């Protein structure tokens, strides 16, 4: 199950968060190749964040998935989630950081 956790210093008061949840869910599912019903999205606003020494609009996100992550998927996730945050919350892509983690990396899949 992929989980996308987004924190931003932007206030979410008056923001249509439903559209952010919907677009992010669809994007993560399509890019990672998992059903939308498996995707979880968390969105936290008004978080104290300093990026580059200032508190202008910024976001930190982390995505954790059991499989489906490679370098091309990472690039697509960063670009797509960054675009959603830029469009919906006016966060410049240069002030967005995405940490991507695949829980299956490094597992020994050989049978004993």
TrEMBL record:
<dbReference type="InterPro" id="IPR014347">
    <property type="entry name" value="Tautomerase/MIF_sf"/>
</dbReference>
<dbReference type="GO" id="GO:0005615">
    <property type="term" value="C:extracellular space"/>
</dbReference>
<dbReference type="InterPro" id="IPR001398">
    <property type="entry name" value="Macrophage_inhib_fac"/>
</dbReference>
<dbReference type="Pfam" id="PF01187">
    <property type="entry name" value="MIF"/>
</dbReference>
<comment type="similarity">
    <text>Belongs to the MIF family.</text>
</comment>
<dbReference type="GO" id="GO:0050178">
    <property type="term" value="F:phenylpyruvate tautomerase activity"/>
</dbReference>
<protein>
    <submittedName>
        <fullName>Uncharacterized protein</fullName>
    </submittedName>
</protein>
């Amino acid at each position: 199950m992929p989980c996308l956790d987004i924190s931003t210093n932007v206030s979410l008061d008056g923001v249509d968060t439903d559209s952010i949840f919907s677009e992010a869910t669809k994007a993560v599912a399509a890019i990672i190749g998992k059903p939308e019903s498996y995707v979880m999205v968390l969105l936290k606003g008004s978080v104290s964040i300093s990026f580059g020494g200032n508190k202008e609009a910024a976001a930190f996100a982390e995505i954790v998935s059991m499989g489906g992550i490679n370098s091309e998927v990472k690039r697509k996730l960063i670009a797509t989630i960054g675009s959603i945050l830029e469009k919906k919350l006016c966060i410049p892509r240069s002030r967005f950081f995405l940490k991507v983690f695949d829980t299956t990396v490094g597992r020994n899949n050989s049978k004993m």
